[in-house]
Amino acid sequence: MKAIVVTDQAAGKAGMKLVERPAPQAAINDVVVQIHASGFVPTELEWPSTWTDRLDHDRTPSILGHELAGVVTGVGYGTTGLSVGQRVFGLADWYRDGTLAEYVAMEARNLAPLPGDVDFTVGASLPISGLTAWQGLFEHGRFQAGQSVLAHGAAGAVGSMVTQLARLAGAHVIGTGRAADRQKALDFGAQEYVDLENDVLEDIGRVDLVFDVIGGDIGKRSARLVRAGGTLVSIVGPSEARPDDGLSVDFVVESDRAQLSEIVQRVRDGRLRANIGNIAGLDDAVAAFNSTNRVSGKTIIHVRP
Fold it and tell me: What b/e readout covers 57-79, taking b as 16+ CB neighbours within 10 angstroms?
């Protein structure tokens, strides 16, 4: 099968190659999925799990990508809950070969059914962005209706999901980002917008929850904006500063079938929109990921036309 692999960590995205790899086999509790569409996060190249297994042994060449939508073609021994021919979407294990390939073997528990009225492109765009936003807001952020949320990168893949889910849950959302992304963030539901290049972030006053996808100086300044009892949630590692009288939480997203089902239901009924910035085929994926053009939104790879 065709797959995109990496073998050289120092090479970065320039080291991505389209090669032929053996088709995967389903182990116990696995399914094999024929992938129709796949997502990719550029920071995967910085994750230890891309390069080594859980025992810290080299596991290259590694197949990249962890988000997918496709059709189950094989079921391993002991696997329950999914069947051959079923449309699915989900999040593959960080330490196993990924989804920028024609097939993937993965644990069935990391997949959810993909309804027939949601296309594979949209399905593949949801797992990391949707689950990260959901878990950051409702599990780690302890969000409650009526609170204020500062959503950094509100026009990006994760930030737009944070914005939409927070609004749906009754938040007042302040988005941030570049000047060029203002209208897009507002279209996704932000009620206010801070242009981080020209506006003063501190002018927004105090908020109940900060969802940080940027880190660095912006992350440190954001910690000072959390009101008493509030939470700073980070997906870019531990914050360099903590709220004076609140929580600081950093986390790594986990697959969750029930949450995936909740997210896709909101897409089906029109309450939630995917944020897809670019679409390319598997043969063109390496060039797409190495493009110098800035893309606001998720890049999705069509594995099957």
Answer: eebebbbbbbbbbbbbebbbeeb
Task: State the angle between helix axes of 157-168 and 127-134 in degrees (0 to 180), rounded to the nearest 10.
Answer: 50
Report angle CA 53, 56, 57 to the nearest 5 degrees: 75
Dist CA 203 CA 217 (whole Å): 16
Contact 100, 63 (CB under 8 A): yes
Q: Where are the beta strands (DSSP E) in the chain?
A: 2-6, 17-20, 30-39, 62-63, 67-75, 87-91, 103-107, 111-113, 148-151, 172-177, 192-195, 207-212, 226-234, 247-250, 276-281, 298-302
Q: Which two tokens stand for residue 213?
A: 């996808």
The pLDDT tens digits of the residues spanning 243-294 come to 999 999 999 999 999 999 999 999 999 999 999 999 999 999 999 888 887 7
Which residue type does 149 have?
Answer: V
Close Cβ partners of 256 (under 8 Å, ≥ 6 residues apart): 131, 135
Phi, psi (degrees; rounded to nearest 5) at 293: -75, 135
**32-79: pLDDT as tens digits:** 999 999 998 888 999 999 999 999 999 999 999 999 999 999 999 999
Phi then psi for residue 118, to 5 deg, are: -115, 120
Query: Mapping DSSP to helix (H, G, I), strand (E, B) and coil, where does residue 237 land?
Result: coil
CA distance 183 to 160: 12
Closest alpha carbon to 136 in 56, 247, 225: 247
